[in-house]
Structure formats: C-alpha cells, structure tokens
Design brief:
- The complex is a heterodimer of chains A (about 325) and B (about 425).
- Chain A has about 325 residues and is α+β, with helices and mostly antiparallel strands.
- Chain A folds into 2 domains: about 150 residues, no CATH class; about 120 residues, Sandwich (Immunoglobulin-like), CATH 2.60.40.
- Chain A contains 10 helices and 12 strands.
- In chain A, strands 7, 8, 9, 11 and 12 form a 5-stranded antiparallel sheet that branches. Chain A has a 3-stranded antiparallel sheet with strand order 5-6-10.
- The longest helix of chain A has 19 residues.
- The radius of gyration of chain A is 27 Å and the shape is elongated.
- The N and C termini of chain A lie far apart (about 115 Å).
- Chain B is elongated.
- Helices cover about 65% and strands about 0% of the residues of chain B.
- The N and C termini of chain B lie far apart (about 75 Å).
- Chain B has 2 domains: about 160 residues; about 140 residues, no CATH class.
- By secondary structure, chain B is mainly alpha-helical.
- The chains are: A alpha+beta (about 325), B mainly alpha (about 425).
- Chains A and B meet through helix 1 of A and helix 1, helix 13, helix 15, helix 19 and helix 21 of B.
Chain lengths: ~325, ~425
C-alpha cells in the first residue's frame, strides 16, 4: 500500500513538473505571410515572381481596367485571402495585408488552421511548414474560385474530353525539373502572357479550297474558350491583300472576345474549345496575308498586341 | 485507492490535453435571415410576371393618352385600371432590356419621373441601379429627377458631372443633358431661375446627402414593398458570380438612410458573404455609417469582432466611423490579433486617431506587422508627435496602399477641422 502511495506521489510530482515546466515552443504552424516561404522555396518563389499571379495587384492594366480598384470587387481575386478558407469552388474575399504580393503563396497553400497544403502526396511532413496533402490543391475547384468569375472553368467543363486534360494544372502548371534535379509544378503559370502557350492554344490556317481563299482559326489546343476571360482579353484576326504589287492596309476581319457587363449591345464572340471559325477572303489579288493578334486589354493598339500566328498565301505571281 | 486514482487523473489530465488546439472557428451566434429573405422574395407583392412585349404595349398606351380625344380617353381608362406595380415593372423592364432604342428609354424614364407614385416606391432600388448601367446622359438626368421625386438624391452625382463637363465631342446629346440638368436643379430649388443660386443649392443638397443620406424635401416611405426590395439586394450578396454582389453594393450605398437598418441587421447573417458585404458596404458609406452604428450595429460589432471570418471587416467598419471613441475596441486587435486583424486594426486606428504615442512607439518595435500596418502606425505616430508627415519607406508596400492611407489620414483631419 505504501509502495502504491509512493508511486502515485512520484507520478503526480512528475506530472506537475511536466505542467509547470516551460512549454517547448510549438512548431511554427501559423503561416501568415508569403515572405516566410522564401527562405526554403527560393526557386519556386522565383518562378512565381515572374508570373502574373505575383503581378496581380500592381499590374497597370488591371489598375486601368478596374479604375484603380475603385471597382473594389476586383480586389478579391487580385489580393485574395487563402482559397482554402472557403468552400470548394466558392469565391474568395479580399485580404487586408500585403496586397502588393497579389495572388501569393498563401492564397493557394494556406489552410484555415494556419498550416500549409500541398498537392504532393509524398509531402515531407517534417519540413518546417509541415505541408500536408490536400486533395483540393490539384483540383479545378481551387482555381475556379477566381477563374470562374470570368467563366473559364465553366468553359472547361463544356470542352471536348481530348482537350480538357486532367485539369487546369496540366497546361498552366506543367512539371519541371529544378536545380538539384527535383521536379515540381511550374509556378510561373504560363498562359496568355506566354507566347508559346498562346501559340499552342489555337492554330491558324490559310489556303485555297475549291477556288475559295479561306482562313480558319481553330481552338485545338486549349480546354476553354479562346480567348478566355471576360472583358479583359481580345484576339483580333486581320487580313492584308496585295493588289497590283502594292500591299494594302491590315483590315480587321473579326474580334474574338466576351464583352463585359454593361456592354450588353455586344455579343460573345469567343471561340469555344474544339471549334473552328472560317472566313472567306478575296481571291482577285496577288497575295493574301492573315495574322492573329492577341491583346491582354481590348483597348490596346494593334501594335501593342502580340502576333500569335500569321500566314501568307501567294495567289497569282 | 480510488481517491489516489482520481487525484492522478486530475493531475495528469491537463498535461495530456493537446497544446495546439485550434481556436474554435467562430463564436458568433448568427442569425439566419434565409427565411426573412425568402419571405420577402416570395411575398405576394412581388413584381408582376410579364415580359417586354406587354411592357411595350403599356408604353404605347401612355402614348395614346397623350393623343387626347376619344382615343386618349379610352387609353386613360385602361391606364387607370393598371396598378402602380404593373406600370413600374413595365417601365423598368424597358429601360433594363432595350439597349438600342434610346428615345424609348428616355420616354420610360420620363414616365417614371412624372407620375405621382404616392407611397408606392419599391422601384427606387431598381431605378438606382440604372445609374450604373445607363449610358445615355439625358436619361441619367431624368433618372435623377425621378429619384428626387421619391426622396432619393442618388442621381445628383450624374447631374453635377454633366453640368461640369465640357468635353462636348465625347458625349452624345450633351447640350440636351445640360439643359435638362439646369431645369432639374431649378426645380429642386423651388423653381428659382438663377443658375448660380441653383448650383450652390445643389452643392448643399449633395453634401447633406453624402453625409446623412436624407433629402429634406421628400422622405422615402420605408414600407413593406420597399423593404422587400432591400432584402432582395441582401440576397444578392450570397451570389457566387460577383456582378449581382456589386450591383447590390452599388444600390445600397446610394439609398436613403433607413435602408442602412437592413444592412445593419443582415451584418449578423449566418452566411459569411452576406456578413462581409454588409459590413463592407457600410464601410464604404463612410461618415454616414455612424447612423447605421447608432441604429443597430453596436451590439453586433462586439460579437462580430470575435468571429473568425468577419472580425477583419468589423474592425474595418469601426475605422470608417473615424471616431476616437473606437480606439479602445481596436487596441486588443492590434496587440493580440492575428496578422490580418492587426492590419485592419492599425488601419482603423489611423482613421480614428488615438493619442497614445508611447503605445504606438512600443508597437513599432515589433517587426511582425504587415507593410500596410506599419505604414498606418508610422503615419499616425508622426502626426501625433506633430512631425511633418514623411512618406514612410516600407519594403513590400504597394504605392496605392500608401496613397489610401494618406487619404484616410487627410479625411479624418478634414472632418476634425469641420
């Protein structure tokens, strides 16, 4: 009996000592600023820095189109709170701090309890940020919170299966080998600001068919409309004829674009995934040239746009 | 034996509890306004269900009335049988859907402006939204007149813009718009014909509207149908596409002051988007939000401050009150809040001002504030010390964020000087 009493006393004292001893500081599980990520993930951060996610809040085009964010609804996606704080697919709300970082690391990776989420099933839980695999990280729903505001994800859902890929990540976060041989998802998010990505989205054809000169634009490389996004993007198809040895002016044949809110007098002319659009051209000329110019802002001059594809056809030498 | 065991369990239990338990997500006892909203939406007094064809027929009827004679009388008898709801809906349907026919829209707006609606004013929110989408300037003046007739001066901005505009090449029918605007400002100044006098009167009305959202001439009847419309707007805050949200915010910040009671009530809705946008809208109303605070919000704010999702907006709202009395509520968040709360609270402190320089100095030793929070605290400290404002050089601070804070500081100083 005495032995049992002594045992309890020892255990009790040990427990008390455990309680009163200074607590070892908890692992830093609260990640509140994306600047905390830089030390360990410099290579990923460098990719992100070159992306338009990093530029989302300071981008002068966005500033102009949002009337310097007087249209405050735009801030929510250009400086969002962590997407994972919201239900899957639901829209995000604006954050208060570090807006200059735009769509930053925490916008996609932070979890409500202060931890960090990853799409990597073999996540190294021993790393200082204790990343844990979260299924939603690799899903369309993660992107849709913002990108479906301008209908891109809805367009993807309606796209032909062969163009859909697995999800957004297939095209916009391709796997890359970084320094040291580690592979990972590209955080530069190649898209409309990347000429290679643009060129792979559509093809432009110019030929004579049954005596008719015809140019065709086909959306055969993207899993959403071309150009996707509402208001901000436009793709203009131009034609130029050569007559009597003289090259004429470039003339706009067609504008591919989804108009914005109050532009209710315009119709949506985007080219859906998997579809083509053809235009018959003059054949009483010496040559025909076509070119497709992509504009990240519909009010941009032709010279400021990017020539995605061009083609020339000599008809009569 | 059992007492030893109990003692052991009692002693060991606390040390075995998880040290890193996550704080409960929310402590807010929210109200569900779902039923209220549904009731308002499905209320018997909902808008009539007819399409644009019927609306066009109705406007033709009004044209026939103006022909006079037997045809006019017959048409008048048919008009008399129509309810205000039907007429308002028809006219609004025309202006909302017919984008090509400017003359027809002007006609519809004019009919809305000229008719005596008595207490039937549920069309105010829908008509207010036209100020966002209507591109025809003369129509904007007619909208302003129609709204003023029922106690809303939401259209005064458009009137002022037109009268100040000199870029004649860029605006269709600018002369007509200016003449309608001049007529309108005479009308609301009891028919005076001195333009300078009318313009000054307009400025006074506009300033008053901006600060208290009331028009002394006519008071909006806050009747059931009008409230149905307001709750309809609250329901739009739940929308996932942003356009309905933005439309609702646009309208709310242009409504008369009693409308704020709906926003203040719905700020404790169980839907986080509704809470967020109600508080955000009240914040945007700036000085006039003091009214909403007085109405109903004080108690809710106390609770919202501890809500995981809404606390930042609640803090931001307190800042918009620009009242020193709010500082006591802000300090706990600055000193013990999370990163977002600290930013919001530092910003709010800059807007409200607090005279504890030493306390702010102590805070600035802590380097874990966001660039935005550091900026607010530095600006406030320099001001309190009586130093000339030096633009703080803070790494990671967006230039526009700096400008916003300078603007807030200036707004408060102007308010204090008044």
């Amino acid at each position: 009996m005495r032995f049992i009493s002594a045992l309890f006393a020892v255990l009790g004292i040990a427990a008390l000592a455990l309680m009163l001893a200074p607590q070892e500081s908890l692992p830093a599980t609260e990640w509140y600023s994306s600047t905390q990520c830089l030390d360990c993930h410099a290579d990923v951060a460098a990719e992100w820095k070159s992306s338009h996610h990093a530029f989302a809040y300071e981008n002068p085009e966005v500033r102009k189109l949002s009337n310097d964010f007087a249209n405050q609804e735009c801030i929510a996606c250009h400086a969002p709170q962590p997407v994972l704080k919201f239900e899957a697919g639901e829209r995000v709300l604006a954050r208060q701090s570090e807006r200059g970082l735009g769509v930053d690391c925490l916008a996609c990776h932070a979890v409500t309890d202060g931890g960090v989420a990853t799409n990597n099933r073999q996540a190294n839980g021993d790393a200082p940020c204790h990343p844990r695999f979260v299924e939603r990280m690799g899903s369309v729903q993660l992107c849709s919170s913002c990108h479906n505001q301008h209908k891109t994800v809805d367009q993807w859902r309606g796209a032909p299966d062969n163009l859909k890929g697995n999800n957004c990540l297939g095209c916009h976060m391709p796997q890359e080998f970084r320094q040291g041989g580690r592979s990972g998802s590209n955080h530069a998010f190649p898209a409309s600001h990347d000429l290679v990505a643009l060129q792979s989205a559509v093809s432009l054809d110019l030929k004579i068919e049954d005596g008719v000169v015809r140019t065709t634009l086909t959306n055969d490389g993207s899993g959403h409309n071309f150009p996707t996004d509402e208001r901000s993007r436009a793709a203009d198809l131009f034609v130029q004829y050569q007559v009597d040895g003289k090259l004429g002016e470039w003339q706009r044949l067609y504008r591919f674009r989804d108009p914005y809110r109050d532009e209710t007098d315009l119709t949506n002319t985007q080219l859906p995934s998997g579809q083509s659009m053809s235009f018959d051209l003059r054949n009483d000329v010496q040559s025909v040239a076509v070119r497709l110019i992509y504009k990240t802002n519909p009010f941009m001059s032709d010279d400021d746009g990017v020539v995605v594809h061009s083609a020339t056809l000599i008809i009569d030498e | 034996m059992s007492k030893y065991l109990a003692l052991l369990i009692a002693v060991l239990a606390p040390s075995c509890s998880r040290q890193n338990e996550v704080t409960p997500i929310t402590t807010l006892e929210k109200h569900s306004f779902d039923e209220v909203i549904e009731q308002h939406l499905t209320d018997a007094s909902a808008w009539p269900e007819f399409g644009i064809e019927r609306a066009n027929e109705m406007i033709e009827l009004f044209d026939m009335v103006e022909l006079g004679g037997a045809i006019g009388q017959r048409a008048q008898r048919r008009v008399n049988r129509l309810g205000n709801n039907e007429i308002q809906h028809a006219l609004l349907l025309i202006v909302e859907t017919d984008k090509q026919n400017t003359a027809l829209r002007r006609r519809a707006y004019t009919l809305l402006a000229n008719r005596d609606w008595q207490s039937s004013n549920r069309f105010i929110p829908r008509l207010t939204l036209r100020l966002k989408y209507e591109k025809d300037w003369p129509s904007n003046i007619i909208i302003a007149r129609a709204l003023a007739n029922v106690g809303s001066l939401a259209g005064l901005d458009a009137v002022q813009s037109i009268l100040l505009n000199s870029s004649e090449n860029e605006i269709d029918d600018l002369d007509l718009a200016k003449s309608l605007a001049a007529e309108f400002i005479s009308e609301i100044n009891s028919g005076h014909d001195d333009f300078k006098d009318n313009w000054q009167h307009l400025q006074l009305l506009s300033d008053n509207w901006d600060s208290v959202h009331t028009f002394q001439g006519v008071k909006t009847d806050f009747n059931q149908q009008y409230q149905d419309e307001l709750w309809h707007l609250v329901a739009q805050f739940r929308s996932q596409p942003l356009r309905p949200v933005d439309d609702a915010r646009f309208v709310f910040i242009r409504l008369e002051q009693q409308s704020m009671t709906v926003l203040a009530a719905a700020a404790s809705d169980n839907n986080r988007y509704v809470r967020d946008h109600c508080l955000q809208t009240l914040t945007w109303m700036q000085a006039s939000t003091q009214l909403a605070y007085d109405f109903a919000l004080e108690e809710s704010l106390e609770i919202l401050g501890s809500d995981f999702y809404s606390s930042v907006r609640a803090i931001e709202y307190r800042g918009s009150l620009m009242a020193e009395s709010q500082a006591d509520f802000l300090w706990p968040f600055i000193e013990n809040g999370n990163y977002e709360q600290r930013t919001a609270a530092a910003d709010a402190l800059l807007r409200c001002a607090d005279y504890s320089v030493a306390r702010i100095d102590a805070l600035l030793i802590d380097q874990s504030f966001s660039p935005e929070a550091q900026c607010s605290l530095l600006l406030l400290r320099d001001e309190l010390r009586g130093n000339e404002i030096v633009i703080p050089q803070i790494s990671g601070l967006d230039e526009n964020e700096l400008n916003r804070r300078l603007r807030w500081q200036q707004q408060r100083q102007v308010l204090a000087a008044d």
